[in-house]
Amino acid sequence: MRTNSTTTDLMRSLGSKLHPSSVREGATLVEFAIVAPVTFLLILALIVGGMGVFRYQETSHLAREATRYASTHGGQYQLDGMPAKTGVPAVLTSADMEAYVATKAVGLDPSNLTVSIAYSAPATIVPNNIPAYLDTNPNLVPPGQSVIQNYVTVTVTYQWFPETFLVGPINLTSTSKIAISY
Q1: Rounded mean pLDDT of the chain?
Q2: Tens digit of each residue's pLDDT (9 = 90 or more) over 69-97
Q3: Measured between alpha carbons, how far is residue 152 from residues 8, 128, 132, 148, 158 in Å?
Q4: When you count CB atoms within 10 A of the terminal residue's CB, does the N or C end of the chain come out lower?
Q5: Coil, helix or strand at residue 70
Q6: Percentages of the chain per state (helix, strand, coil), in multiples of 5
Q7: pLDDT tens string 19-54
Q8: Distance (Å, rounded) from C-alpha 156 to C-alpha 13?
Q9: What are phi and psi of 110, to 5 degrees?
């Protein structure tokens, strides 16, 4: 009988630990009500932030791709009659570049893209979008070191409206510069 009473005492002791008193019955619900909105807000911010990073990476890629295209489809390309031979248009204005970039935009709204193109050639080079090199020592055979004189710079700006609508539009801008090669 003594064994029975010890077992009963042990069961009562364990039972009180497994089932908390009625004072703490709603504590879990209150804790969940505090923690759940914060957790969901952090998850939502992480998702929207990831979408912003994707859009910036895409903007950077478009700037690099547009610069590469402009460096190989510039003035010399036009002068050699390549657009008629290949069917690929030359880049002469920002509108030409914007049309090219719009076809390459993946996951971005093309109406929110702005593209500007600039050539940095000396005033002696006309047109300014052809490759030009300056020989530092023309008396050497073979020629001395050549210095590239003109570059093309493309700036792509994307106006991003975050999906949560908590903040206004954010301008994501990327600039790329490369020597004109054709």
Answers
A1: 83
A2: 998 888 888 888 888 888 888 888 888 89
A3: 88, 10, 12, 12, 20
A4: N
A5: helix
A6: 50, 20, 30
A7: 555 567 788 889 999 999 999 999 999 999 999 999
A8: 71
A9: -60, -25
DSSP of 11-22: HHHHHHHHS--G
| pTM of structure | 0.73
CA distance 5 to 116: 89
> How far, in Å, CA of 109 to CA of 163, rounded?
13
Mean of the pLDDT values across residues 156-174? 89
> Omega of the bond prior to 127 within 30 degrees of 0, cis?
yes
Token look-up 């939502």 returns 44
pLDDT exceeds 80 at position 146: no
Where in the chain are the domains? 28-179
Is residue 114 a contact partner of residue 101, using CB atoms and an 8 Å limit? no
pLDDT at 166: 77
Instruction: Give strand pairing partners of 148.
Output: 133
Cα–Cα distance, 177 to 174 (Å, whole number) = 10
Distance CA 102, CA 29 (A): 51
